[in-house]
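Hi Q.,

Before the meeting this afternoon, I wanted you to have the aspartic acid prediction in hand. No need to reply - just skim if you have a minute. The sequence and ligand are here:
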Amino acid sequence: MIKVAKFGGSSVANAEQFRKVKQIISSDPDRKFVVSSACGKESNEDHKVTDLLFLCEAHVRFGVSYEPIFEQIEAKYQRIKAELGLKTDLDSEFASIRKVMKRGMSTDYLVSRGEYLTSRLLAEYLDYDFADAAEVIAFRYDGEVDMDRTRQLIEERISEDRGLVIPGFYGALPNGVIRIMSRGGSDITGAIVSNVVNADVYENWTDVSGFLVADPRIVKNPIGIPCINYNELREMSYMGANVLHDDAIFPVKDKNIPINVRNTNDPSNPGTLIMADCSEKDRISPPHAITGITGRKDYTIITLVKSHASAEVGFLRKLLKVFENYHVSIEAVPSTVDTFSVIVASKEVEHCLYDIVGELKENLGPDDVRIEDHLALIAIVGRAMKDQPGMSGRLLSEFGDHQINIKVISQSSDELSIMVGVHNRDFEKAIHSIYERFITEEQEAK
Ligand code: ASP
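Predicted structure with the ligand bound:
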């Protein structure tokens, strides 16, 4: 078995967290490859090293002294080193970063130092080899990762009897210049490494026990999702459930490598398995009808009424073109015979709503244009909803029983998710009641 274990920032925030990581790694010899984020926040008042490095870079750019912030970063690493009794020569590491900063450096170089330093210390502490991501994660000039080259470079660093720690979040262009990924990118590095070493599982260790059925700020102690497929995950994370970087799926999807999201602070919890297909797991333990409930507030519905519009060829295209002209992305377009509603995030149209309405009136000659704000969209996601007659009926009656007015509703034909639009003020109540009905009651019935 080959396991790649990626640890997020909170998992490596201080010496105590490093100890938990070591415990996890030494409890399973299959965890041969480790990918690490930069030290995250130790407490709510603390700052992520990556944020502090971005701040330093801004100070350098504006010619303001960066030393007070940089010293804070250095102190954090020195503390971890001292508490764990490590030998890594941090003085010379920091001296060489300072030298580059004085000379003038790229943002990417400076910001990548968080992952670099954290992984250096972690490698020594775990007694694993260290491979600088600048030497093994190969970007092409178009910004894409060159998987073949990366595979070759990582293979050269693998030794029979020792594990390997690789910093997340960055790599290098063919000319050696460091390039960082988007925020949270260590998740992507973990997925890339999993792909190139043909891992059996990609473990993503964080500070929550995987995905929960509902947001714990809304539902008290929601149950976890044991298994979720890629498509469900897309629906869930698009609508607000943020545990994993969106792009972390692609490198493992190709090879069908499951991702296991686990909690460094609760390692006995099995967490959530993300797989292309959960059917095998489902045979052993049948899933709830609903995999997850998620959603977001603050959408706007722009409704156009025009008699006989449905018969007008190209009407919808002209309608959508107006939104495209203003670079507004559209969430959904529910329609009836002669009304077409366009749902967009309110902040997308903050500055251009009245220009859009003006253009709609001019280009489409509607009988009426109506605008409604404060819409919340709720996505009820579940692979088990497919072919289950009565599912949407149960769902709608739940809303009715709680006096929640549904403003829009839509279901894709793959029956993977049902989207319901309600007033912002009903958002929490709706999520609560769906959870009660489809999770709590089902559990009680078991
Ligand atoms: N350290 C980077 C960030 O804070 C990348 C990561 O942690 O995945 O975004």
